[in-house]
Amino acid sequence: MQRGEHFGRASRFSSQSVKYKFRSQAMNSSDSRFILGLWRIAQWGMSPQQVAGLFRECLDLGIDLFDVADIYGDYRCEALLGAALQTDPALKSRIRLIGKCGIALVSPARPAHRVKHYNTSREHIIASAENSLTCLGIERLELLLIHRPDPLMDADEIADAFERLGRAGKVKDFGVSNFFPHQFDLLQSRLKEPLQTNQIEISLTNLNSLFDGTLDQCQKLGVTPQAWSPLAGGRLVQQAETSLSRALARIGNELGITREQLSIAWLLRHPARIRPVLGSGKIERIRELVAAERVVLERQVWFELLEAAQGAPVP
After folding, report:
1. Buried (b) or exposed (e) across 265-279, using 16+ Cβ within 10 A?
2. How many alpha carbons fall within 13 Å on the CB side of residue 115?
3. Is this model's pTM higher than 0.85 or not?
4. Is 20 known to be catalytic?
5. How many Cα atoms sit within 13 Å of 108 on the Cβ side?
6. What gap in Å lies between CA 230 and CA 269, rounded to an integer?
7. Which of 97, 98, 120, 213 sits at a 20 to 30 Å CA gap from 243?
8. Chain region(s) in the chain for CATH 3.20.20.100
9. How far apart are CA 66 and CA 36, in angstroms?
10. Amino acid 24: pLDDT
11. How is domain 32-196 classified at the CATH fold level?
12. DSSP E strand boundaries for the chain
């Protein structure tokens, strides 16, 4: 995965008199810190042509990485995305797609599944990836993630599946999602190439990765983490009156930005170079959130929000 190169400037604005700074540099598509998540594409009520139009608008904003998974939309999202790409085949060479596999849902689309379970067997990973390529109508995924850690995970089998898919040119790079550091280490120990990401839930309402070693590991290995649900599924702005909601409203008002932009800027301030996965199908909303990249929070403001989120000062 390619990483944004602009975040390191944050430390230059650390005096107490400066609460934020706007970056002026425009982002190239390959430098974008944002990913568009497509797990709700079946709920957007958009035609294939409208979805393709959204992709083009995202590309204009510098977003060229899009996230999907085999199970999204009860196994329908990949086909919907494929239909959109079919309306404008040129998009296939302009966008990069993240796929995920390993979760098996009970669904009419998968009648053999009697119980929800995980399947990270060699055969399942390869079959899932190949089915994704067929549904999407493309020849290669930019990135394939194991969606959840599997208690029956055989790291050697996963490594073999990754190697076969890579050698066949069907997947460029590989990563994981929702893995703890020890699970990440186990799988990496069997791989010849480095895992490229760990896609995890990170937001001001989910701080676990700050303290369980996940983001520390990402920094140590130079792995770029991806944040799913960076706005806590909308709860950050819909929640009742709390210390966090009050802090977001007050600081956002002081900085002249929305609470959503402030929440995203808080994630971008972390030195692990977190890449938020945005889940909106509205370009106005996406444009608003992308603008948060121009905001660099001063260190004490970042800790103000952490304190409000935790409900107590740091030790």
Report:
1. bbbbbbebbbbbbbb
2. 2
3. yes
4. no
5. 2
6. 13
7. 213
8. 32-196
9. 5
10. 41
11. TIM Barrel (3.20.20)
12. 20-22, 35-37, 65-67, 96-101, 103-104, 117-118, 141-146, 171-177, 198-201, 226-228, 275-278, 295-297
